[in-house]
Amino acid sequence: MKQKMWQLIIRIKKNDEVGGKRLQSLIMDCLIKGKVSGATIWTGVDGFGKRGKSTLHLEGVTVNMPLIIEVVDLQEHLEPLLPALKMIVGDDGLVTVQETYVF
Question: Helices 82-89 and 23-33, interaxial angle, to 10°?
């Protein structure tokens, strides 16, 4: 049986900060307080966007690695969090939502 849900994807860079705190930590705190069922942060190797290139240097130094935070939950759990998440992310990233089905 399949269940209709929402997939929330937030794209940011690892070095992004707001008020001296890492953006990914602020986002995860918001998701935990919002009682979503779970979230995963994926580290990218390379990417680019309106703020330029995001690259992971393999010499041991990480500079502006792209991060993707992915959440799958019910619409009624995620929709109320969207304004707060957009405020946290601001112009530093991209917040997308799409319908998905979980089997």
Answer: 170
